[in-house]
Structure of UDP-N-acetylenolpyruvoylglucosamine reductase:
Amino acid sequence: MRFEKGKSLKSLTTLGIGGKAADFVEVKNEREMEKLFRENKRRWRVIGSGSNIVAPDSGFHGLVIKIGIKAFGVKGKTVYAGAGSNLLDFIKKINRHGFRGMEKMAGIPGTVAGAIYGNAGAYGQEIKDNIFRVRIFDGEKIKWISKNKCKFGYRSSIFKKNKNWVIVGAEFSFAKGNPRELSKISKDIIKLREKKYKPGLLCPGSFFKNIIIKDLKSIVRKKLLSKIDNSKIMYGKAPAGYLLEEVGAKGMSSGNVRIAQHHGNLIYNAGGGKARDIRKLSRILKDRVSRKFGVRLEEEVQYL
């Protein structure tokens, strides 16, 4: 393992925002991980590809650990993926093997572990749908935990509550499909995503979570449904982008952080952006949506 002092957090996140980490290290296998956590007593944070992270302008005064474990293996219909595996690369591999269930998630930025941490999903598919079990480091040892113990929900999991748990990898179980058809679906989805998220754009993907209609209190649900176009509801969710556009989010800015002209839930760094500007925009947008629709948006991104 090679430790680096003063590592730029801008270089570790897709938003390109943040100060410096006091120390940085990348671990590439389980042995390195166990050694690191045995010997390190400092404050720490784990990251993957940094695609869903807003890093502080003041930096992080501790150790930032990048998980670079990229193992891949297939046994029957069971597939193992290391935590640091790029999600799109993983999806392409299982498509070629004829495993279906994640082909519509192609183009979601990040790693396999990041997707598990936030139960990433798109177009009706979520990563939890095909997980069999997850391999973690619980602060003392590496072990497996069952899918049920992961407590997956909409963009949530037990890992968001147990910050001292580190995802090492996961086993998946898939149904069979046609490799060519699966690959075509993924390619088509990527083309759709690139219309919204231009290649090279400094952004985290969707900034806010969509609103799950059935989870709202009756009085809140009635108010929301009376104020929106019901044709906009998708997979039982009111898209955050639609709600944001209804309150004039498109084109807003704070400093060099902007909201796209074509999508209300796309916050990006136009160059030299600051985390404080992201937080300012987030507060304004949540207040506007709350006043108009009676619901409170929640960030999908994580603040480091």
About this structure: The chain is about 25% helix and 25% strand. The longest strand covers residues 20-27.
